Amino acid sequence: MADIKVAAYICKGCGLGERLDTDALVKIAQKDGKVPMAKSHDFLCSADGVAMIRNDIDNEGVTHIMIGACSRRAKTEAFYFPSNAVARANLREGVIWIRPDTEEARETTQEMAEDYIRMGCAEVKAMTAPGGNPNTGSSKTLLVVGGGVTGMTTAIEASKTGYPVVLVEKTGELGGMAGKLYKRIPVHEPFKSPADTGVADLIAQVMGDSNIKVYLNATVAKTDGAPGRFVVDIATESGATHTEDIGAIVQASGFTLYDMNKLPELGGGQSPNVVDQLGLESLARAAAAGDGVIRRPSDNQPVKSVVFVQCAGQRDPTGTHLAYCSGTCCNTSIKQAMYFKDANPSVDTTIIYTDLRTPGNGEDFYRSAQEKGVIFTKGKVAQVVPNGAGSTVKFHDLILDDTEAAMADVDLVVLATGQVPNSGVDIFAAPKESEEGAVEVKPISILNLNYRQGPDVPQLKQGFTDSHFICFPYETRRTGIYTAGPVRRPMDIAQAREDATGAALKAIQALENAELGRAAHPRSGDLSFPKVRLEGCTQCKRCTVECPFGAIDEDEKRFPVFNESRCRRCGTCMGACPVRVISFENYSVNTVGAQVKAVDIPDEFSEKPRILILACENDAYPALDMAGMNRNEYSAFVRVIPIRCLGSVNTIWVTDALNAGYDGVMMMGCKHGDEYQCHFVKGSELGRVRMSKIDDTLKTLNLESERVRDLEVAITDIERVPEMINKYAAELVAVGPSPFKGF
Amino acid sequence: MTEHVATNETILVVGGGISGMTAALEAAETGKNVVLVEKNPALGGRTSQLYRYFPKLCHPVCGLEINQRRLKNNPRVRVLTLAEVSGIEGSTGNYTATIRIKPRYVNENCTACGDCERAVEMQVPDPFNYNLGQHKAAFLPNAMAYPQRYVLDPAIIGSADAEKAKAACKYGAIDLDMKEETIQVKAGAVVWATGWQPYDAKKIQPYGYGRFKNVITSVEFERLADIHGPTGGKILRPSDGKEAKNIAFIQCAGSRDENHLRHCSRICCMASLKQTHYVREKYPEDGKSTIYYIDIRAIDRFEDFYQKVQADPSVSFVKSKVARISEDEHGNPVCWGVNTEGYKRYTTPHDLVVLAVGMEPSVKGVDIPGHIVADSSGFIEADPANGAVFGAGCASNALDVNRAVQSATAAALRAIQVVNKVAKAEA
Question: Are residues B214 and B343 in the same domain?
Fold first, then answer.
């Protein structure tokens, strides 16, 4: 390791100089922090203050910088030293702003500041400036799985941006579901009539683009590697396997219509004159190829009346059918009713719905259908009874509150059955016991990832591929693999094309960053990466099992194999490792452990307890900062250390703290479960599971269970967090001082 | 965060809400230089004014924190606040934008210590809280403001208060002589992400917004529920500060109406369903919500959210477009109409009425530079005639956050395609 030279800078601005004895802080940095070069400045973030630091870097050989000033979230432009290891001691938001400016508080406030200086010095010395992951790959090729509208759009857009594409389609032709449609929902003014699907044009673009290599009748047999260096085996119908070097992947595997045979009460499978939406499209295409008249399948007679049953097998709270709404079926039924009305206004078209859902300009399309004479009936269809060539549709008319409403002699019934995503294998599903006689169709893997955690991208509860749903919708739990189109949310052509374009960008970004050894979202640009000392590894597999992103495989001797480009730098592996052999250059068992140990623990008679807070840097830490900005006071006995994620908390930090005589430990992380708020999806959950076992450790230390507290904190808890801290501090007084003080 | 020089390989992003921030960051993290222009003094846009998101009921500032950290770590994004694009000239691959930057009266020396705020007395309406409350004329735009830098309201300039603010600042951060400036920025492509504005509820006359104090809009309701809002997170009604426990939510206030907004604004049903959670959160014992609706549009994966609210006994649904609202002698707004399920008339008083106001694109009625093709609602269309000006987020459609982010990511790619071509031609 190159020589390090550490310097500490203490700011006297923003009241720090008045509230704290900054000369004493400088001495603490020198004496306890063992930093020979320690200085104070009246206004450290000023041009003059920053120039002082810059000069020490350039001319004094300073490599490591400890800044004792405001929060690490403040004045980031001034204190921007990307080539150096930097630690920030939060004296402003974390000390003077959360303590009263009174004579009696002065001593404990100063002690708090002194500890943060000790901690900052200890932390920065344990850090090195991250240099980037060297295990990179430089493939610039995108793999697109699926040749429907989504996949073709991804391919075309990536190619337009200058990236080669390999497109794999399992059937013999491009076009997917959209290729089976007669027309699409309109996307331009005046939104009044069905429009051309545009699929033929997309196919022509793909086939005419020398930058796009298309494999038809092909599937992905194996995906190995990591972003920038995926190696993908493509199996073709002939039995031949082609191997491609791939930089990033977009999975656009689309959807399958919910099987109407599961809806016999609605006539599904009971009569040729009861069709699903795709069935109606093929009737419309047949009509367009002939005389333009849509005919009844059973006897080829022109359809004179048609009923569309919305939400067939959807929005079902009982768990039998789909629980969700597919979002597109209302517009589709409107479009299909227009197939009839535009050809022959005398055909009776009725759409039976509970809530008509035509967002945005779909409203104009809906209005246009009303103008064309399509009847909309608010009702819930109970039964479709085919008799002869016609059918009777029985429904509950919700406007007249008539449970016995019915329409007889309907020529054709169209069931709007909804979209089921082709997500592949649900890798975390508990194995299902198949019922007697039931034929279990095993899902087929889409990507065949050669990953320790399983062959496909993890799914959400409704079978859609996972994503950080609201703010960061593209972030799957498999780095460099993005899902797009109806595989991740029911959607129509317009939305799928937009989604595909975004996914193409994310894939391009992933392969570019992989080449530079940088992390992807949410720590995008982070150059640190996990390093493992394999000679200390006991092959326990916890890291490989827990990694929320499936980044770690195992070799034949069951040692972990880190695929750094798949890693998102949350540190869950580091938290999981019982022998502590995993670390990041600027975040490690040591950088946090050294801070824990740097705190001065007063003896048991001082009545000054010490509480360690390990706070998630994404939510809990900003909440603490904002509590400071709001001058919400909290106990001077806490010492806060920001952590990347609750998942990165190694039990040793907690046991070290308790052994050192801390009276309590608070862990603050994000909500977990279905409505998780953890930016690493599973990090906080894994951290909590780990910490739920801390009771055993407490027992062996003969300590009370109250000494460790696991708390769910949101970024808005600016009043709640100080209350929690103060309450806990009071509780600890009742429990009494830790027996480990002074050892 | 640094001052890179804009060229025709630069991407200009107009609007610093969730869509603009996303487009800027996604492009920057793909290695492109970006100038991000925001008219307010801080980034975050309308999402930063929401208390919670549907369907997870998580807090928008949580994602904002991540986006801000991405910005802080990325020297490729240059952020201009209090800035508005007043003109764009040129064509694909070669634009020059004229940007007007209003004076902040506070320079980069600001440490956000708050001394100026404590020194001044003047109060001005707080637009972050939709003017439901006031703040000091020297202010931090909001708790999560980025840039984290104070602002002086123009109203204070020339007053003794302004001098007090200046005197209070130990860091020479206050510059009362700052003037509006106009700069020109080169760009190869433009992402237009100016978002949306709530439809002006005063225009829906029968609902009495502006006449009855206890008729408010859905965006205002977000501020009432938020701890950073004017009531500190308590749902109190404006007329008398009384706890508002019996709350009506009126859907399609402006939307799906040819007299107002033709389109469906997509988010309002989910927003009201979400807001019934606020009522229950704040008044778990006796909070009561009534939703007056035409269709509940809990589209696709949001359906189970709707089902959970339906199962909540404190929430009732009335299928009806409310005809009018009056006010009774206690200041309670009274909803009049017919429940179309069974055709039953109602005259129902509530403590507070929340109008689920529609989403109007911010480009509507705004002089968009150049010749941008928009649909009849004012949303920017994808049209070759727009050259390399790409609509993103709610400037392009009525979208929720999730879809707006997708749209912004797609727009970023379209912009990158243009600047990559420029780079190739110049290489």
Answer: yes
